[in-house]
Structure formats: structure tokens, C-alpha cells
Design goal:
By secondary structure, the protein is of the alpha+beta class. The protein is 53% helix and 14% strand. The chain starts with 7 loop residues before the first helix and ends with a helix.
Length: 370
């Protein structure tokens, strides 16, 4: 081990009790104040992907600047513009060109925004979070996704270009005979929502595996920090719950919408997404019930172990009591004590000190006390 590895601050932080339960994570999850103007850092790199297609043709491009994507307005085909990395000037340019409301621009550039749906005369805007599970920190990470549906165009804005869940959608776009190429922009919007919601189940599956691991540790009684792990899992479930309930409202908004941008034949697809998010919400509630049960089980196990310790200590105290009494009696400073000068007095006292505890042990076992 190197000397640099022996850093006091690495271990002294655990002397502070709240650090055992990751209170910093609590602040990250719950510190949301919509009255404070958000400060978003400009993306170091912006990548723009263009998919302009109809039933027979597909044009796929990756652009270094946003100026080239402005020419796809009113192209007569369905266009998907995916922007990875947010810069205020770029977002304003694209939204202004496609006649998107200024309030939508503010929502796209916001931080920690609640999933929502807004309709205007020429567009439908929805905002939701794409969720990922970090295997190293055992935590759920969020990436804000903004989707704008306009006439024959879908514009999606992502914060992180390194990861997304739309890879399979890009592959489907390359299939000439696929349903995606035969439908319009509203069907593409449905596919984006469906893939985000379906990825929620992957995150929950990994979180469920983690819950099972903690459950095994609690049941076996082998973990001394089970309570901190349970607390951590409860915080991650808060993130899921905070996302699932609003997303259900978002999808329900698409179902009930009377916008001309949505055709009635696609309502059943949004209903399918709604069923999935309802199922995900129910599963989160089940996980929450399991976590509460694990916490109660852990506390009961701790109390049970404490009772076992107290019972053993009580038995030991009772068994030592006769020897203490006999030793105390014959140790008193009186000149006349029975059997004090008897040559067998010491052995008689020791015999009683050993015999009485043996009788007590047999009596305790007979009554089932231990």
C-alpha cells in the first residue's frame, strides 16, 4: 500500500453519522426549486443527426452545425432531427426556425424540470427523463429529453451524446418495408416515447436485482450496514416514482389531445405506452413495499440479536450469583463465622458454588428459558 492511499479524510468522513446514509444524495434528489433561474453549462460539443425519410427513401446525415438542418423544413417527407448537447443559441435558432413557442425553449434549457406536455397551435412539446442505472454507484441517473412534434418533423434534444436508447429505432428506420417508414411524424414520436418508457423496465430490473442482494444479506444477517443500503435503495425509488407518475400524465395527454398533428389511428399506440408506464408505476410501488418490509425485518433482526445477547448475559449473571453470595458471606470481617476454621470449609464452599449453578442450568432448561 502506498503512503498516499492512507489519507485521513478518506476514513474520517465516516465518523460523521449522516455520511453513512449518503445525505448528499438526498440533497441531489430533493433539492428542486423552480423559483431559482437554472444555470445550464454550455455543451462542449454538439452533434446533430438528421433522418429524412418516406416509404422508399431515407437520407441519413450527421451534421457539425445546426445551420444545415434548417433546410429540411417543409421537405415533404418525415424528418427526425436529433440534437445531442444543448447550447442556448443553437436551441433558440432551431426552435425559432420551426416556429416553436419561446416558453418551450425555456423548458428545453431548464434543469430538473418535471415531465410535462404542452400543446400549441403548430407543435406538441413533451419533456421527460431518460433513466440509466450506474453499476458502480448503484444509483439511477437521469438525462433530460425534450421532444417537439410539428408538421412532418420531430425534433429531440438530449443532454448527453455518449448514450441513449434510440439505437434500435435508427436500425428500424433503415428497413424500407417497416411500419415506421410508412407512418408519419406522430408515429415516430410514439416510438421515441415507447423506447424511453421500455428502458425504464431495464433500470427497474437492475434495481430489483440489487434489492434481492440486499434482501439476502438482511435475511442471512451477515451485513452490518444493511440499513444504509436499504436507505440508499429508497432514495433511488424516489427518483423512479418522481418520473413515472408525470410521464403517465404526459402519455395520457397524447391520448386525449385533439391536435391536428395526431391521427386517431395512432391513439392505440399511445394507449400501449400508457399501459406500460402504469405497469412500471405499480412495480415501483411493489419495490417500495419490499424495501419497507426489509427495513422492518432488519430492525427486528437487530432487536432479536440484542435480546439473545441480553438473555445470555442474564443467564451468566444468574449462574454467577450463588458464587458471589457464598464468597461474600464467608468474606465478611466477623470473628465468629460457622465453618470458618473447618478444614473442609473451603472445599464445601467451592462445591456449593459449582453445584448450585448446575442445578440452576437444569432448572432453566426444563422450563425452556434457553
Amino acid at each position: 500500500m502506498k503512503l498516499d492511499d492512507l489519507r485521513p479524510d478518506k476514513y474520517l468522513k465516516y465518523l460523521y453519522l449522516p455520511n453513512l446514509f449518503a445525505t448528499k444524495r438526498t440533497k441531489e434528489i430533493l433539492s428542486v426549486n423552480p423559483t431559482i433561474e437554472p444555470h445550464r453549462e454550455e455543451a462542449a460539443e454538439v452533434t446533430v443527426s438528421i433522418y429524412d425519410y418516406d416509404e422508399t427513401n431515407l437520407e441519413e446525415k450527421k451534421l457539425a452545425t445546426l445551420n444545415d438542418c434548417l433546410s429540411y423544413k417543409d421537405s415533404g417527407r418525415t424528418t427526425w432531427i436529433n440534437v445531442d448537447g444543448l447550447r442556448k443559441a443553437d436551441v433558440e435558432k432551431v426552435c425559432t426556425h420551426y416556429e416553436i413557442h419561446p416558453l418551450v425553449i425555456e423548458d428545453i434549457l431548464s434543469i430538473n424540470q418535471r415531465p410535462k406536455l404542452d400543446e400549441s397551435e403548430k407543435s406538441i412539446f413533451c419533456l421527460l427523463n431518460m433513466l440509466y442505472y450506474n453499476e458502480k454507484t448503484f444509483s439511477v441517473e437521469q438525462e433530460q429529453i425534450s421532444i417537439v412534434l410539428a408538421k412532418d418533423v420531430v425534433i429531440s434534444f438530449q443532454e448527453d451524446a455518449r448514450r441513449d436508447v434510440f439505437t434500435s429505432l435508427r436500425e428500424k428506420l433503415k428497413n424500407n418495408g417497416g411500419k415506421l417508414r410508412q407512418r408519419g411524424a406522430e408515429y415516430l414520436c410514439y416510438m421515441l416515447l415507447d423506447m424511453i418508457v421500455d428502458h425504464y423496465f431495464i433500470v427497474m430490473e437492475k434495481l430489483g436485482d440489487r434489492i434481492e442482494d440486499v434482501e439476502e444479506e438482511v435475511v442471512s444477517g451477515g451485513s452490518t450496514r444493511a440499513l444504509s443500503q436499504i436507505t440508499h435503495l429508497r432514495k433511488e425509488l424516489i427518483i423512479l416514482k418522481r418520473n413515472f407518475s408525470p410521464v403517465r400524465e404526459v402519455v395520457n395527454g397524447f391520448i386525449r389531445s385533439e391536435s391536428d398533428l395526431l391521427e386517431d389511428r395512432h391513439t392505440k399506440y399511445f394507449k400501449d405506452v400508457y399501459d406500460h408506464i402504469v405497469q412500471a408505476s405499480d412495480l415501483v410501488e411493489n419495490y417500495r413495499d419490499i424495501i419497507v418490509s426489509l427495513q422492518d425485518l432488519h430492525i427486528n433482526n437487530v432487536n432479536l440479536r440484542m435480546n439473545e445477547v441480553m438473555k445470555v448475559m442474564a443467564v451468566v449473571t444468574c449462574l454467577l450469583a450463588p458464587a458471589t453470595v457464598i464468597g461474600g458471606i464467608f468474606g465478611m470481617n466477623f470473628t465468629s463465622i460457622p465453618f470458618l476454621n473447618n478444614q473442609y470449609g473451603f472445599w464445601a464452599a467451592v462445591t456449593f458454588m459449582l453445584l448450585i449453578p448446575v442445578v440452576m442450568v437444569r432448572l432453566f432448561r426444563k422450563r425452556g428459558w434457553f
